[in-house]
Amino acid sequence: MLYQVIMTVDLPRDLASEEATRILAQEKAYSQDLQRSGKWRHIWRIAGQYANCSIFDVRDHDELHQILSGLPLFPFMEISVTPLLRHPSAIREDDR
Amino acid sequence: MLYQVIMTVDLPRDLASEEATRILAQEKAYSQDLQRSGKWRHIWRIAGQYANCSIFDVRDHDELHQILSGLPLFPFMEISVTPLLRHPSAIREDDR
Amino acid sequence: MLYQVIMTVDLPRDLASEEATRILAQEKAYSQDLQRSGKWRHIWRIAGQYANCSIFDVRDHDELHQILSGLPLFPFMEISVTPLLRHPSAIREDDR
Amino acid sequence: MLYQVIMTVDLPRDLASEEATRILAQEKAYSQDLQRSGKWRHIWRIAGQYANCSIFDVRDHDELHQILSGLPLFPFMEISVTPLLRHPSAIREDDR
Amino acid sequence: MLYQVIMTVDLPRDLASEEATRILAQEKAYSQDLQRSGKWRHIWRIAGQYANCSIFDVRDHDELHQILSGLPLFPFMEISVTPLLRHPSAIREDDR
Amino acid sequence: MLYQVIMTVDLPRDLASEEATRILAQEKAYSQDLQRSGKWRHIWRIAGQYANCSIFDVRDHDELHQILSGLPLFPFMEISVTPLLRHPSAIREDDR
Amino acid sequence: MLYQVIMTVDLPRDLASEEATRILAQEKAYSQDLQRSGKWRHIWRIAGQYANCSIFDVRDHDELHQILSGLPLFPFMEISVTPLLRHPSAIREDDR
Amino acid sequence: MLYQVIMTVDLPRDLASEEATRILAQEKAYSQDLQRSGKWRHIWRIAGQYANCSIFDVRDHDELHQILSGLPLFPFMEISVTPLLRHPSAIREDDR
Amino acid sequence: MLYQVIMTVDLPRDLASEEATRILAQEKAYSQDLQRSGKWRHIWRIAGQYANCSIFDVRDHDELHQILSGLPLFPFMEISVTPLLRHPSAIREDDR
Amino acid sequence: MLYQVIMTVDLPRDLASEEATRILAQEKAYSQDLQRSGKWRHIWRIAGQYANCSIFDVRDHDELHQILSGLPLFPFMEISVTPLLRHPSAIREDDR
């Protein structure tokens, strides 16, 4: 099942810089593992924002929530979730 | 260049039903031509809404505007445009 | 899978009264069939509003969208969809 | 009487981690007692959010307020309350 | 139980003037009956608006909804409902 | 003259607990004096919120502002003010 | 007593042009009478809008409402009202 | 040229009380100088708010910005600016 | 003096197509005259919208309002106005 | 390609004053280099705000994001981006 997810990051200023570096490295590894598995289908930067626009392809709401709440940046992000499905005008049966 | 585009349709009730049918058929053909050309990369239905979430891959703002303003449903849609780019954590050089 | 759905109805004033009566009867039958099947788990009136707060328990986004877009009142409603899952503090494994 | 309640948690970063652990354990026990008593009829996690969507079945506004203002997480939550009642299309007399 | 209710009226321009007169007379009688019964405890005009701010004292959500949805102006009003209770600083046990 | 006033409290976490206790006691005394004088006509708790919905009956804007800006909790509250007057459908000449 | 009032006009397109002309002439006369009496202290156009920003100096809420609800354009305006008073830094006792 | 300016003050709690006193005294002197010069034409308190509604009469945008950004409270205020001009219904040529 | 102006067009569906054509031709001529005079310094289309983002360079608010309220499309546009001035980091004294 | 960018600055109070001075000097140099290169085509101050309204003329979204995310003030700004293109009524082929 597909979900569009918008994540906007707001790192607190008093986060120690080594801790920020460590969290961002973990976030990148975490994201890339999920991209490789096919569950985090797309990730794009939104121009001018510390934010991304992503497409997830997961089994159900539970798996999506497990993934999102496990993000190392989760405590520092505002997240919006939109459930998506095949559009009747899509030329592909399985547009992901 | 990539753009996320959200289109929300609001067909007026007094649109004659044959005209609506004709416009919707034109919209579908128009969209599918652009999907085949690769410019309209993705189109998904938003669950529970008469709306779609799409990704466009076009040359520039002009081409995007020409495409969107040429949509047969353009007069009946609210449209929002968000410019996207490669995310530094993306595992692909060219995620579309 | 569970979804909270809020539906707010806005019947146009120029809807002929027999047509309104017919649509509302269809809506009721449509809703009650889905309630009996267990897919429309809960439906409550929101106090003071021509609106309901509902819980759906369906297979996936596609089934939810098929149900919602098939509502006889669909053209006259504003709909919001929120994906829900089991809460870690829930005392039941399967709270529906 | 039924109420839909949305609770969104925002734990301050400077909350000592042991205190957070203690508060969350108290919150869980408090919630589960009320679930067992039937007053906190449903609790669901909202996908991607540190938030829940709940249904309360209590005697009156006073009891609802007493319960909500007594939540160990009350100082760290944004809460919205919506009064609900039986929907005329409900198939059950007593949908809770 | 107490509720604050804000009602904002928007009479459509094409409402025949006799029908408007009739509806407004019915609304006034309906409101005054409820005021006399003590259920519509207070009604005030909001300065500069075609709107009122009211306090209802009714048995439960059902009775409130029955009253509000029965208002002759109900199809022409936007309504917001806020559940109220005794404030701990109130000097009266029963402030209505 | 009548005013509806909504006050929403947001006590900062780093307010020393004795200071909070002292301010809240002052607030209660301040409010009850004004209630006894008839100027603070009604005060109700809003269910589920650290907020109240009040009706003031004062001489003019100046007196209202003097009262509100003198509230011990004034620095910690968001306040909204709505001027009210007699409603033409009110059964009482002097509904307060 | 002073009030800031913002009025935004939205004339319906199907208002017959003679009727619009008549209403606008009445509105102008009505406004100028009140300006001469000192009750409508200031009226300014907001640049680029079919709207005005005004200051009223009237006895009480009732008089303000009587004036505003009597505006020939009242059915075609959105109105917001803000109660004003002397500012402690004002150099005049009686700034109007 | 005329501008309506709304200024809403939010003094941070950790501002030392002597510094706050000094800034507020400077603000008052600064404002009164500009009122005497005729540039700060009106200043009113908004009832119930730590905010003012003002009318400025200055040469151009530059002068307005110089004045506003020079306010001792500028770092602690939210400011909105609305350009005003003579209203065609004004009875005075030069309403300030 | 400089102003940023955003204009969003909403042509009513029942505008006769010849009238629309005539208005749009007038609008274009009107705009181009002002562009040639230097008063309408820039006009850009906003991608995906029936809207423009413009920069005006006029004598004062009056001239701006006269221009905007004289637009043939004025009755069909939503307009927002933002006063601009030289930025202290600008490399040009006179950036228009 | 053209973009309108609105940047609103919010410097935290606890930023050491020398650090603020250094960042602002860097920001100015950074901006002026880009202005000289023609990529930061226009920059204007918004009257009464610690904010600017700018026009960028860059190769694509990537270049825009690289520029904006490299701003020394980037962590302290809220940024909005609007893609612009030639307006059909523009008298210039290449209005920048």
Automatic annotation (TrEMBL), chains A, B, C, D, E, F, G, H, I, J:
Residues covered by the Muconolactone isomerase domain: 1-89
Q: What is the lineage of its organism?
A: Bacteria, Pseudomonadati, Pseudomonadota, Alphaproteobacteria, Rhodobacterales
Q: Return the EC number.
A: 5.3.3.4
* Reaction it catalyzes: (S)-muconolactone = (4,5-dihydro-5-oxofuran-2-yl)-acetate
Group of enzyme by EC: isomerase
GO BP annotations, alphabetical order = beta-ketoadipate pathway
A Pfam family the protein falls into? MIase
Domain of life from the UniProt record: Bacteria
Q: What is this protein called?
A: Muconolactone Delta-isomerase
Which GO molecular function, any one, fits this protein according to its record?
A: muconolactone delta-isomerase activity
Family, as annotated = Belongs to the muconolactone Delta-isomerase family.
In terms of NCBIfam families, this protein maps to: muco_delta
Question: Sorted alphabetically, which keywords does the UniProt record give?
Answer: Aromatic hydrocarbons catabolism, Isomerase
InterPro entries xrefs: Dimeric_a/b-barrel (IPR011008), MLI_dom (IPR026029), Muconolactone_d_Isoase (IPR003464)
User: What is said about its interaction partners and assembly?
Assistant: Homodecamer.
Pathway participation:
Aromatic compound metabolism; beta-ketoadipate pathway; 5-oxo-4,5-dihydro-2-furylacetate from catechol: step 3/3
